[in-house]
Design a protein that fits this description.
The chain has 166 residues and is of the alpha/beta class. The chain is 16% helix and 32% strand. The protein is built from two helices and 19 strands. The chain has helices at 3-19, 25-34; strands at residues 38-39, 43-44, 49-50, 55-57, 62-63, 68-69, 75-77, 82-83, 88-89, 92-96, 103-108, 111-113, 118-119, 124-125, 130-131, 136-137, 142-143, 151-154, 159-163. The strands form four sheets. Strands 2-5-8-13-16-18-19 form a seven-stranded mixed sheet. Strands 1-4-7-12-15 form a five-stranded parallel sheet. The chain has a five-stranded parallel sheet with strand order 3-6-9-14-17. It is globular.
């Protein structure tokens, strides 16, 4: 088998494990770790999808159901982060092409979610974004730019609403 086919097969197994509702959240994290995703002592609920092995999920994290990890570049999730259901963590995009094909060559940039942050349901984080430690990102927000620590962000695009206490 080619290296590419083996990698696709491995991701198929990773996503089957992450979707399996018969496993406990901590058991799922253990199996994902053994399959090549860097996971600390974390709780990962069923249904998340990993497209690549570039995710690092630190100790104390909670990943709710159906979170999408793009993984075409590094995704670094700090300790004690909560990611609610159906969030999308994107690390890949495309260059804008001419009128005949707007989505041209691939671009990749990693993202970071700082310690203790909380992403509400259906938050989208775009490539290259660094979410500062202690941030809260409101449900349905699209984070297009890096955030300052200990702040509340909301909206499309996400904008700073206020500072949060340390």
């Amino acid at each position: 088998m080619t290296q590419r086919l083996l990698r696709r097969l491995a991701l198929l197994i990773v996503n089957a494990v992450s979707s399996n509702r018969l496993l406990s959240a901590y058991g799922r994290a253990t199996l994902l770790r053994r399959l090549g995703i860097e996971v600390g002592h974390a709780r990962i609920d069923a249904g998340s999808q990993f497209h690549g092995f570039n995710a690092r999920i630190a100790d104390g994290c909670y990943v709710n159901e159906a979170v999408f990890f793009d993984g075409s570049a590094a995704i670094d999730i700090g300790p004690n982060v909560s990611i609610e259901m159906q969030c999308v963590l994107l690390t890949g995009s495309h260059e804008i092409g001419n009128t005949h094909q707007r989505a041209r060559g691939n671009t990749h940039a990693g993202l970071t979610i700082g310690e203790g942050s909380w992403l509400g349901a259906r938050v989208v984080v775009l490539p290259g974004v660094q979410i500062g430690a202690g941030c809260v990102i409101a449900t349905g927000s699209v984070v297009t730019k890096s955030t300052t620590p200990n702040s509340l962000y909301a909206g499309v695009p996400a904008t700073k609403m206020r500072d949060l206490p340390n």
